[in-house]
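[agent] plan:
  1. take the single chain provided in the ticket
  2. run structure prediction with default settings
  3. attach structure tokens to the ticket
  4. add a short note for the reviewer (M.T.)
[agent] executing step 1
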Amino acid sequence: MRCARFAIIAIGSLAVSAGALADDTGLAYSHDLRKEGGRLCMSDHYHSGSGSGRTKAAAQAAAARSWADFTNFEYGSVWARWSLARSKSVRYTKAESGWSADVDGRPCRG
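[agent] step 2 finished; step 3 output follows
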């Protein structure tokens, strides 16, 4: 009985570990990576995003979501947090109905 209980705990632990790793596609490791501020970041690979909104803040938020959506698709959600990106830049353009924004940043793993 004790051995069966240990096996169940071990299998459960493996399942939890595999679930955490499943959120990283592994493609990020094809790029040069380096530690920055305690995080693992892409050294020279940038992702871009664009969005629009009635205000600059809304346009930037939409562009950051665009950046995160593509980064998530390519590398997994552990790399897809705009707030953790490094070398971020934002460019705004005034549009008829508000603003558009374009963002660039190097993904970092959270």
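[agent] step 4 note for reviewer: Residues 88 and 105 are 4 Å apart (CA to CA).
[agent] ticket updated
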